[in-house]
Design a protein that fits this description.
Blueprint lengths: L5 E6 L10 H8 L4 H9 L3 E3 L15 E6 L16 E4 L3 E6 L16 H7 L24 E7 L2 H12 L4 E9 L6 E5 L2 E4 L2 E7 L7 E9 L3 E8 L6 H8 L28 E9 L6 E5 L9 E2 L8 E2 L5
Parallel strand pairs: 6-13
Antiparallel strand pairs: 1-3, 2-3, 4-5, 5-6, 7-12, 7-13, 8-11, 9-10, 11-12, 13-14, 15-16
């Protein structure tokens, strides 16, 4: 059965910036890149009150913009012999300690070498998530974020864990080093997140974005940075990184959101950020037993930060 395209309609209102170009409008409301929006327009997948217009068309107040997004082209995901660090496995679930630098699922520019390729290479069953290339995945981690990730091996497990994630019964906590010092030992950042309207590859705090909340607890204070525990209440793309950057304390090593400088203090390798999914708690999808896992930040350097007076030095790789 051929998948149907996704059709969405958007009404241009006074607060939707009438007069903006059609490609920019579509990119913003449909959460697409400008190139993707322009391609949809050129291929006749975007109409205004039933008629086609060019990408340069200026939307007007009252325009009804219909966007038809074709289903993604399926592409075979091949099994690959890639070693994984498995924290736990039984007949229903798999907990992987993902290495930094590994993409979770295939996408343009990353059709091989992903976690899903590695999972298929191990053999055995994986849940059918309904999307080719995302078999077994319950949630995701950014490419340059390391740590614990939950995989469903059966469809039953995937349904159960998906429901638990939606009900916020799966607890995900991260160890993160942020530049500077937060104002309080405990704080909550509750700010909506969406695509950056000026750079579609980045996320940003946007008033019309999706609700996003992160709780932070300071675990240690160093001269130049704070070691924090971050607890996600929502799972937006780049959530921890965007929230910390928004309060002026970006993640150490994060080139995208302003924390990539001064790597020499930690001897961090290029494109390595100090963000690690260190804690994972979830109800087992079959037994209902509450499982809890913790994994250290893998050592990638011999760098140290000097701890504030009153405490001994803490080696940054020793987080658990």
């Amino acid at each position: 059965m051929t998948p149907e395209p996704t059709v969405r309609s958007y009404l241009v209102e006074e607060d939707e910036s009438p007069g903006s170009r059609l490609d920019l409008f579509v990119a913003r409301v449909a959460d697409l890149s400008r190139t993707q929006a322009a391609t949809l327009i050129a291929n006749g997948h975007v109409t205004i009150d039933g008629r086609r217009e060019k990408a340069s068309y200026r939307v007007e107040n009252g325009d009804n913009v219909s966007v038809s997004i074709p289903p993604p082209t399926s592409r075979e995901v091949l099994p690959e012999a890639i070693q994984l660090n498995v924290a736990f496995e039984d007949e229903d679930v798999l907990v992987v300690d993902k290495a930094a630098g590994m993409v979770v699922h295939p996408a343009p520019g990353h059709w091989s070498g992903t976690l899903v390729n590695a999972l298929k290479g191990r053999g055995g069953s994986l849940a059918d998530s309904g999307v080719t290339g995302r078999e077994g995945l319950v949630h995701r981690l950014d490419k340059d974020t390391s740590g614990l990730l939950l995989v469903a091996k059966s469809d039953r497990a995937h349904r159960s864990l998906g429901a638990a994630l939606a009900a916020r019964r799966i607890v995900r906590r991260y160890a993160v080093l942020s530049w500077g010092h937060v104002d309080q030992d405990r704080l909550t950042v509750d700010r909506p997140i969406a695509r950056n309207p000026r750079d579609r590859k980045r996320m940003a705090i946007v008033s019309t974005g999706r609700t996003a909340r992160t709780d932070f607890v300071r675990l240690a204070r160093f001269d130049a940075a704070d070691l924090l525990r971050a607890h996600l209440h929502t799972g937006r793309t780049h959530q921890i990184r965007v929230h910390l950057a928004s309060i002026g304390h970006p993640v150490v090593g994060d080139d995208t959101y302003g924390g990539g400088g001064a790597r020499r203090l930690l001897a961090l390798p290029p494109r390595r950020q100090f963000l690690h999914a260190a804690w994972l708690i979830f109800p087992h999808p079959v037994t209902g037993t509450r499982w809890s896992f913790a994994r250290r930040y893998r050592r990638t350097s011999s760098g140290r930060l000097q701890r504030r007076p009153g405490g001994r030095n803490r080696r940054l790789s020793g987080i658990h």
